[in-house]
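User: tokens in, sequence out, please.
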């Protein structure tokens, strides 16, 4: 409350003292001093300090790989007050982000503690869903067409068979490890009548 022996309360001018960086002031939570200028009808002026309490009520939910790298955009909930509890399993933005991560072929490893009742604090809070990637063959040619070639006494090499689908190996694991791809001939080459099979064909 402001009291003055010259002016009534509604006649007193109140303004923020110039030179205060409000962006910096609210950048971090905690108690801050806000300077206020007051002036009555007679021109009497004074500057007072008002203590304010800046709090960060944001709850940030991250979706990270094994190297703590975000794999989808984090969800930020900021419409709650400190002390409120949030059930992440019922939040549509969180469910959508989990689905997006799964669509990128990530496997969920760990969920946040108290996932169904994460408490909002006054200093900001970050919780994480942790994933790991997968290694698999995402595309492969069903047929490799080497065409028909006449083989006489010399060797012949065909390096560029024709195919429709390319061979694509998907590997989005956080920690890469060596892997080996092997191919097996499941059906012998077709020979003309009278020709003999040779184990050196392949």
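Assistant: Sequence out:
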């Amino acid at each position: 409350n402001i009291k003055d022996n010259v002016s009534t309360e509604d006649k007193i001018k109140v303004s923020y003292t110039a030179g205060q960086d409000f962006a910096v002031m609210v950048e971090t939570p905690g108690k801050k001093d806000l300077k206020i200028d007051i002036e009555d009808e007679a021109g009497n002026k004074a500057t007072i300090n008002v203590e304010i309490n800046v709090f960060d009520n944001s709850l940030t939910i991250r979706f990270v790989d094994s190297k703590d790298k975000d794999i989808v955009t984090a969800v930020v909930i900021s419409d709650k007050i400190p002390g409120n509890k949030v059930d992440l399993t019922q939040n549509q933005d969180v469910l959508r982000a989990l689905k997006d991560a799964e669509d990128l072929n990530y496997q969920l490893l760990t969920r946040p503690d108290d996932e169904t009742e994460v408490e909002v604090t006054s200093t900001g809070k970050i919780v994480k869903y942790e994933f790991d990637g997968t290694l698999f063959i995402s595309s492969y040619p069903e047929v490799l067409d080497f065409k028909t070639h006449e083989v006489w006494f010399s060797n012949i090499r065909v390096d560029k068979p024709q195919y429709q689908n390319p061979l694509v190996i998907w590997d989005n694991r956080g920690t890469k490890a060596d892997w080996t791809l092997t191919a097996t001939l499941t059906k012998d080459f077709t020979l003309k009548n009278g020709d003999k099979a040779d184990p050196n064909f392949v």
